[in-house]
Amino acid sequence: MGEEELKVLGAWGSPFSRRVEIALELKGVPFQYIEENVFDEKLKSPLLLKCNPVHRKVPVLLHDGKPVVESLIILEYIDETWKNNPILPPDPHRRAQARFWAHFIDHKCMPPVWTALLGSVEEREKAVEEVRECLKTLEGVLDGNRFFGGETIGLVDIAANFIAYWLRAIQEVSGLDFMNEDQLPLLTKWCEEFVSCNVVKEHLPPRDKLITFMKNWLSANGWSWTD
Amino acid sequence: MKQMEYLFLFLEQNCVIANNMGEEVKLYKTWSTPFGLRVVWALKLKGIDYESIDEDLSNKSDLLLHYNPVYKKVPVLVHNGNPISESTVILEYIDDTWKQNPILSQDPVERARQRFWAKFNEEKLLPTIWAIFTTEGKDLEEAMAAWVENLKFVEEELKGKKLFGGEKMGLADLVFGWLANLIGIFEEVSGLKIVDERYPLLLTWMQVFSELPVIKETWPPHDKMITKYRALYEKYHPAK
């Protein structure tokens, strides 16, 4: 098998680019990682702008010069290209369920987290409640399984990396109570199992660095800790 | 022997032999939903026999709420009692389940490309068109500016292609499909020009797409759509 050129354009703190790293680790595929500055348009690399002209965002997977963008789309691409340690099950109905829940995480769970942090005080309460409802739903989806993918991690687990790690950091920094461990025992256990996985733990941002970053980011966005 | 041959020929020419004998397929939608129509097209493309159930969204059936407890929306596809929700998830399910007339190519790069444009349509075009339809003044100006930006990318993508899928219709075409019908309706109701001559490739695509055998004559009744969207437009733009 010839040497394939694989690059990942990512950002250390982005859950989306970390998803791609986890998937490649799971498949045992070596890649070259390139850190991008995602906060300053002027500092985005020409390569990033060439590979993702529409959104100008990370992650980008470059496989033999061909770019693939959008983290969930990249995960499916990885699964279709390297067949070992599948991320999606073979059964069409279970595949549909996995895609549904991955979509749910990105479109229903995440947006209210940002609203809770950036919105008005009135919007915040409603948003926190929305996140809690989503987490309660995910607790039900786990249904006693070790992972959303069953015995091993799959698409939904990787998509939920934000919940396992970033959300808990946001909770600590903001003081907002998104995830009540007593009310979500299965999800809490899942978080611990997930971050301990060999293929995951090397692909999480350093905790202190993330906490510091979040504190600065919240301050810059007008967050008040005296609420 | 000759009689049997004539019988088979008659059956072949006159009976729709569905590709899903013995399987129960139901589609919950509404008469006007563009999301449901995508699923109709996919099922038609694959020759899948199904039962269509039109919901009244102001009075949702218990079955719909049971099958889609998370979003409580249409469309929902129920295959042998198993429900699948979210139109793009349903389209991929249909392609995974019935292999004839594929919606996605086997090539992973091509699949990723089509999924990208399907996502772009959902996350960029749909919210922008809704903003154009429902807002006024400065908000409308901003929505139109965003729309123009987005369409530039679409126009670029269509260069050298008959359809988003290339020579044949694919996932991205099915997801973009609503444009070929609703743009005309929105323009008629609002008096705005939404897709103009700056976008010749998109305009051509809208025509080519509408003429495809699977798509032709599947649009909801025009007059009924105008009535519905006129009422909606007036709700967001009350006469002063």
- Average pLDDT confidence of chain B is 93
What is the gyration radius of chain A calculated from CA atoms?
Answer: 18 Å
Determine the N-to-C terminus distance of chain B: 78 Å
Mean pLDDT of chain A: 95
State the shape of chain B. Answer: globular
Largest sheet of chain B: 4 strands, mixed
Into which percentage range does the β-strand content of chain B fall?
5-15%
- Share of residues in helices of chain B: 55-70%
Rg of chain B is: 20 Å
Tally of contiguous helical segments of chain B: 10
User: Could you give the order of strands across the largest sheet of chain B?
Assistant: 2-1-3-4
Poorly predicted segments of chain A: none
Determine the most extensive contact between two protein chains: A-B, 23 and 22 residues
The number of distinct β-strands of chain B equals: 4
Give the SSE order of chain B as H and E letters.
HEHEHEEHHHHHHH
* Strand composition percent of chain A: 5-15%
Oligomer: heterodimer
Q: What's the count of strands of chain A? A: 4
Write the layout of secondary structure elements.
The complex is a heterodimer of chains A (227) and B (240).
Chain A: E1 6-10, H1 15-27, E2 32-35, H2 46-51, E3 60-63, E4 66-69, H3 71-81, H4 92-118, H5 121-142, H6 155-159, H7 161-174, H8 185-196, H9 198-201, H10 207-220
Parallel strand pairs in A: 1-2
Antiparallel strand pairs in A: 1-3, 3-4
Helix pairs in contact in A: 1-3, 4-5, 5-8, 7-8, 7-10
Chain B: H1 2-14, E1 25-29, H2 34-46, E2 51-54, H3 62-67, E3 76-79, E4 82-85, H4 87-97, H5 108-134, H6 137-157, H7 171-176, H8 179-190, H9 200-211, H10 222-236
Parallel strand pairs in B: 1-2
Antiparallel strand pairs in B: 1-3, 3-4
